[in-house]
From TrEMBL:
Name this protein carries in UniProt: Cadherin domain-containing protein
Topology in the lipid bilayer: Single-pass membrane protein
Domain of life of the native organism: Eukaryota
Keyword Protein biosynthesis: no
Database matches in InterPro entries: Cadherin-like_dom, Cadherin-like_sf, Cadherin_CS, Protocadherin/Cadherin-CA
Record's subcellular location: Membrane
Pfam families: Cadherin
PROSITE patterns per the UniProt record, alphabetical: CADHERIN_1, CADHERIN_2
GO annotation, cellular component aspect: plasma membrane
Any one of the GO BP annotations: anatomical structure morphogenesis
Keyword Repeat: yes
GO molecular function: calcium ion binding
């Protein structure tokens, strides 16, 4: 009996469910007796169960292609108890796509310099799939995390660079990589992903670039060594490739310096905008990469003006002339002051610092006539003009303008006074010798003030004449009894165009002959003045009269005495003091006062005696004679005994010289003093041996009393030492 096949081979998918019939063996001939199948050899450990009667194989448990791909069994057939035949049975496990691809790690990382050559493969992606055939064949792709075409995976499973890198544009990539098996249809495929972090390593491929301003403005008075600006430069590289250093080129000429690390630029020399108002600083910034990369740039420094210059006039003094009839608003001159500063610091305004008939345009500096001029009132002006800039703290300078006002014939001749009186003695023997210079004032200058004089009216009798220079003459002798007053009109004409005139009325008074002397109202004057009066005190009036007319009757007073402290007012006759008087020095003065008429050539006079008594005031105090006093007295004295007789004097008179004595002080009660004589007595019986000092006071009786003090030193001696004397001769 034989099997139907010499070898059996069955294919079983690894996902076949247990209990499924997966194969069947059979014999060629049918036996009359029952046959029985059995597994003689089995490397599957009963994975496949053989039905002994039907010859069918049932799967006892799940298959795993990855664990074992095929199995070999030996099957025998028995008829009765004997073995009839055997056969090999092969079970091939067919792979089913049951396993997804597996990466060796969930996240891969790689460092890739940004100058890596395109096409470089830099990371091997380790991935596996336990399936077989198409189920285990894998396809790797970059699914995301980078621009399309940036990376690719070659057939060997390595990640490769497809386009150039730029760290400054993107410093790293977070890629998603997928692994797909090749099962068809696609819907049955397994897909697995992994992350790949690609860090782009920096190379020094970027030069630093300036990001700070390229233009700055600083005041010209900026303090030395101060920071005028801080440069900022950026380098897109990292590390030392991105660290920058700053350098100044030689174009700064030492005016500036820079801190290489911080970029702070310092001012090392003083600025002067008026010399240089714009400067260019050439700055180089380099990185620390290898090789280094550098960028050079220019910083424009504008020097801002500060108000450090005064306005300056072209000259310190100006001289101008202007006609006095110049109308208001006439422009005379334009001054100009220049200020080297700019802006408001250089804007100049003009000011006239004193009041005058001129005004200056504050902006243009034009000097203009403001008020009507009058050369005769003021022919010269000295103006101080100030130029002031408009800085916050203004600066200024001044110039002097000398203005001369030119004359025009605008003043008529003026007689001062307009009426003149001329006295002429009657019966003059040579009247033609009597002349008088007539003079008018014309405040104009030059030919405008050249005057000619004429008699206009009042000379019908031809008694007078005047020459062009103004000399007035009396041609004939005058008779006061016939005419005592003549009124003559004189005209003065200047030489200007047109000529101007002035008029004088001249009164010629004919005076009589001086034939009377002054007479005083009294034959003798007696007066008194106090010695305490102040200088200039009027204390008497002397009067006299003269019956003549005019000057002959006018009296002038004077004194012959020159060394006296008095004076007389020559017109009124008032006597007044000229010095401080002292009655104690001189108590009476006798003055000779003279009254003279005012005849110009032959005055007549008379005199009178004036007696001046000096009245006393209390201006001297009493004074003790022989002060201080010492009195020697017996040791024992009866009441009323004379001790001493004191004497004081006072240079005043009357009450001012009436003296009153008194005692005061310690021990003064032991004695008494006669108040008017100054004699000192004992007040009671006295017996002493020790000396006593008594104070004495003397005072005058003036309205404002004055006084003096002294002391008496009373010394006691034995009575036997004293002779007997008359009391009236007793003294201290």
């Amino acid at each position: 009996m034989a099997f139907t096949k010499t070898v059996y081979s069955f294919e079983v998918k690894e996902n076949t469910a247990p209990g499924t019939v997966v194969g069947k063996v059979g014999t060629v001939f049918e036996a009359l007796t029952p046959i029985k199948y059995s597994v003689q050899e089995d490397d599957g450990e009963n994975l496949f169960l053989l039905s002994p009667f039907s010859g069918e194989f049932l799967l006892s448990r799940s298959l795993d292609f990855q664990a074992q791909r095929f199995y070999i069994l030996t099957v025998v057939v028995q008829q009765g108890d004997s073995k009839v035949s055997s056969v090999r049975v092969y079970f091939n496990v067919l792979d089913v796509n049951a396993n997804p691809p597996v990466f060796s790690q969930d996240t891969f990382s790689a460092l890739l310099l940004e100058d890596t050559v395109v096409g470089t493969c830099f990371l091997a992606l380790i991935v596996s799939d336990k399936d077989d055939g198409d189920n285990g064949a894998l396809k790797l792709t970059v699914a995301g995390g980078a621009d399309e075409g940036m990376f690719f995976i070659n057939r060997a499973g390595s990640l490769c660079l497809k386009t150039e890198l730029d760290r400054e544009r993107q410093p790293f990539y977070n890629l998603t990589v997928t692994a797909n098996d090749c099962v068809q249809p696609v819907s049955l495929q397994f897909t697995t992903t992994a992350n790949v972090i690609v860090v782009v390593g920096d190379i020094n491929d970027n030069a630093p670039s300036f990001v700070s301003t390229k233009t700055i403005s600083i005041p010209e008075d900026t303090a030395l060594h101060s920071v005028i600006m801080t440069l900022h430069a950026e380098d897109k590289d990292t590390g030392s490739n991105g660290e920058v250093l700053y350098y100044l080129n030689n174009t700064s000429s030492g005016i500036f310096s820079i801190d290489n690390r911080s970029g702070k630029i310092y001012l090392d020399e003083a600025l002067d905008r008026e010399q240089v108002d714009t400067m260019t600083i050439t700055v180089t910034v380099t990185d620390k990469g290898s090789p280094r990369m550098a960028t050079t740039g220019n910083i424009t420094v504008h020097v801002e003006d500060v108000n450090d210059h005064d306005p300056k006039f072209s000259q310190s003094t100006f001289s101008l002339t202007v006609r006095e009839d110049a109308p208001r608003g006439t422009s005379l001159f334009q001054v100009q002051a220049l200020d080297r500063d700019i802006g408001t610091n250089g804007q100049v305004r003009y000011i006239l610092t004193q009041t005058s008939p001129f005004v200056v345009d504050s902006v243009r500096g034009v000097i203009t006539v403001k008020e009507k001029l009058d050369r005769e009132r003021n022919s010269n002006y000295t103006l101080i003009i100030t130029a002031v800039d408009q800085g916050d703290i203004y600066r200024s300078s001044t110039a002097t303008i000398s203005l001369t006002v030119l004359d025009v014939n605008d003043f008529a001749p003026i007689f001062t006074p307009q009426t003149l009186t001329l006295h002429v003695m009657e019966n003059e023997e040579a009247p033609s010798q009597l002349t008088h210079q007539i003079s008018a004032l014309d405040e104009d200058l030059g030919i405008n003030s050249l005057l000619t004089y004429f008699i206009h009216t009042g000379n019908s009798d031809g008694l007078f004449s005047i020459i062009p220079n103004g000399t007035f003459q009396i041609v004939h002798s005058l008779d006061r009894e016939k005419e005592s007053l003549y009124s003559v009109t004189i005209i003065a004409v200047d030489s200007g165009l047109p000529p101007l005139t002035g008029t004088l009325t001249l009164h010629v008074i004919v005076d009589d002959v001086n034939d009377n002397s002054p007479e005083f109202s009294e034959e003798v004057y007696n007066t008194i003045v106090s010695e305490g009066c102040s200088t200039g005190t009027v204390f008497a009036m002397i009067t006299a009269s003269d019956i003549d007319e005019g000057l002959n009757g006018e009296i002038r007073y004077s004194m012959e005495n020159l060394d006296v402290p008095f004076a007389i007012e020559e017109t009124s006759g008032e006597l007044l003091t000229t010095k401080v008087l002292d009655r104690e020095t001189v108590a009476i003065y006798r003055l000779m006062v003279i009254g003279s008429d005012k005849h110009p050539t032959q005055p007549m006079s008379s005199s009178v005696l004036v007696t001046v008594l000096i009245g006393d005031i209390n201006d001297h105090g009493p004074q003790f004679l022989n002060s201080p006093y010492v009195a020697y007295v017996p040791t024992e004295m009866a009441p009323g005994s004379v001790v001493c007789a004191l004497r004081a004097t006072d240079e005043d008179t009357e009450m001012n010289a009436e003296l009153h004595y008194s005692l005061y002080g310690q021990s003064s009660d032991l004695f008494s003093i006669q108040p008017y004589s100054g004699t000192v007595f004992t007040s009671s019986a006295l017996w002493r041996t020790e000396a006593i000092v008594v104070n004495v006071h003397v005072e005058d009786a003036g309205e404002n009393p004055k006084f003096d003090v002294t002391t008496i030193s009373i010394r006691f001696q034995n009575a036997s030492e004293f002779p007997e004397i008359n009391e009236k001769h007793l003294g201290c």
